[in-house]
Each structure stands twice: as structure tokens, then as C-alpha cells.
What we know:
Helix 2 runs parallel beside helix 6 and helix 4 (104-120) packs across helix 6. A hairpin with a 3-residue loop joins strand 1 (13-16) and strand 2. The protein starts with 12 loop residues before the first strand and ends with a helix. Helix content is 51%, strand content 20%. The radius of gyration is 17 Å and the shape is globular. It is of the alpha+beta class. The protein contains 6 helices and 5 strands. It has helices at 55-58, 67-78, 88-100, 104-120, 125-145, 151-170, and strands spanning 13-16, 20-32, 35-43, 48-52, 61-63. The chain has 2 domains: 13-63, Thrombin, subunit H, CATH 2.40.10; 67-170, Methane Monooxygenase Hydroxylase, Chain G, domain 1 (Up-down Bundle). The longest helix has 21 residues, at 125-145.
Amino acid sequence: MAISDRMLDKGEWVVHHLHGVGQIKGVVKRKVNGNKQMYYRVQTNDLTYYLLVSEEHMKEIRNVSAPSTFQSMLSLIRKEPKQIAEHHRARKKRIQKAAAKLSLKAKARMIRDLYGRQIRKKLNFRDQMTLEKLKKQFVAEWAVSDEELDKEEAMRKLNDALYTSATRMEEE
Length: 172
């Protein structure tokens, strides 16, 4: 769900549709194209980005999912992977569409399906990088959501679910 009806507080965690989980570090005024506007300064593990404080731009982020949501996502990931198109353009379009969504469910499905494709046939470099980025974002959000879980344990649980998914694929 996008955050659009309130101001965000310093220290609050959010998920950006492309950058993944980040923490609000403050609000700053910046001059862009001659216009001074207010921006949230958001810090991820890898970068700092600025998000314009506007209803339109707030649709690019959502709240961090609850810990229980990740259990549901692991159940989804354990299911048999769906086939991804063989033609690289069709596959690229589907991957980009899922990766650009805010939905944790869409990203969990794409992680599962890319992993399944990796088992069937080696991923090209772009698809492999997308899979790794999606897994990293999933794990980072989960670790922020559940304070008792560190990233290493979250990655282990995700990989276990992916392994289960792969075994279901092989049962055919």
C-alpha cells in the first residue's frame, strides 16, 4: 500500500519500488530546475535518494510489511515456479513489470520464477542480477520488519523455500 495521506517521520522505514527498503533520515529543501521543494532523504544500505514530498511521488513507496506477511510469502515461494517466457524480450518485460511493482507478493513470485528458470536453464547476466537484487531487497525488508531476524538467517530461510520450490518442479 502506498503512503500518501501523511508526512513520514525521521527514522521510519519504507520500501521504494526500485531501491528497496530504506530509512527516512529527514526532510530537506532542495533546489531543482530553479524550484525549491521539500524532499525526504532516504538511506538504504547502498545509497541515499531523495523523494519529493508530494502525493504523486509517495505512490513510489509503501510501509514495510509485517513479519507475518513474510511467512505467507515463503509459502508462495515454496510452490512450483511458473515458466518464464523463453524469448528474451517477453521475459524482460515481465521481469521489469514485477520488479517495478510495490507489491511484495509480485516480487516474491518473481524471485521464485527466476530461481526456477535458473534451475531449468542458466540465467543471462541481466536476469541473474535481477534475481539477486530482488532477493537482497526481500531479505533487507524482512530483517527490518522482524527485529529478531538478521539478514543471514532471512537469506537462509528464503533459500530453503527456493530449494523446496525447485524440488516441486522436479517432481513432474
